[in-house]
Give the backbone structure.
Amino acid sequence: MAAGEEEMTEEKRREGISVEVTEDGDCRRTISIEVEPGILEDEKTRVLAGLAKDVTIPGFRKGKAPKDTIRRRFAEEIHNEAVKSLLPDVYAHAVSSESLRPIGDPVFRDILIEDDEPLKFRVEVEVEPVIDLEGYKNVKVKTEEISVDDEEIDRVLESLRERHADFEPVEREAATSDVVVLDYIPSGDDGELDESKKVEDYPVQLGAGQLFPEFEEAIIGKKQGEEGSAEISYPDDYKPERLAGETVRYRFTVKEIKEKRLPEIDDAFAAKVDEKFTSLSELREDIGRRMKEEKEEEARRKMEEAAIDSILDANPFDVPGTMIDRYKGELEKEDEKRREMAGVGAEEDEEKKKEIDALFDRIARRSIKRFFLIDRIAGLEDFMVTDVDVEAEIEQIAAGSGRPADEIRSYFEKGGEQRRNLMGRIRERRVFDLILGREPEKKPEDGEEKD
């Protein structure tokens, strides 16, 4: 068949399909479709032609049986296969003709086929939200003055001082903040010490929450070489589970006590923090600069999210329920992991569970709306990210990190997920520049290759 004849046949086929779309809210759509009998018959003819090449019927060579014979013998199979192959094709036509953007798999319902009557069925599907935007440029949001005072710098210095503390052996009783080196042995089920589970040379800093309070209380006041015991009752939801709900007595020996010695905050300390500093004033200046940059970055994020909320309030739209459920599922998994790491069991209180579910629902809806909003603005403004943009970003990352540009470039290799994420960040930054009325980036020149 010539190309022109194929196009005419396809056009005629599409004319025999009627489509009606009903909005069900929350991005759900029901597509009611009718297909003229002739289209289904044409599909049966196609299926029959394919079947005739392979089927073997007694008395005929393979592929040589009369089609009328094959049609009678395999009528049900031909009918079912024709419907099976026709439904997704007709659905694709409906999606295209109605300019729908489906999310997830369609659900076919109420398939009705009667002799000499149109094939009728419904398709339920979720679609991307239709977003009609107004007032998304130069959004006014509250700004805050950024400053760093001496007290804040002093707190950072004190934290650095703690991190650079030395621990010197002492001959006295153990006290809070000391590092104590222990040998300890748990008792078995019979109350006897279980030598097979003995732990030797175990360091622990008292007061840092590394041990149960009962154990720390038993250690404090002991001197090097002294023994003691502590009884620990483990919570029912404790990890590992083999100890959950158990009460275990431990016998321990203090092998060494080390006292924390904090360094003086002076020029020598600055050099100890980083050899590039020759004086304490240089270190303070660097701390102040970094803190200001962090505060400015945090303020920028707050402004961006405030602008997003303002636009969303002015331009409400629904988001797909399946996306919300999926996002909430991820939040629940993360919450479960956090609880496990903290040794906390699942929430049992029903009211608390409802509050957590409501919180996750708000987070999911807002995050998904944010995604669609930024994508919509980027599409309206035709924000494209080119190879030139990515290369400039790589050079900037390299300059800021002090790492070779080739190393950064290798990390963001073409076609990789990291590169796609980087492109998304560049695109999002341009959207926020537009939203907040910041100086926009230079657009790529025409003809530049786009990723």
User: Anything to note?
Assistant: The radius of gyration is 35 Å.
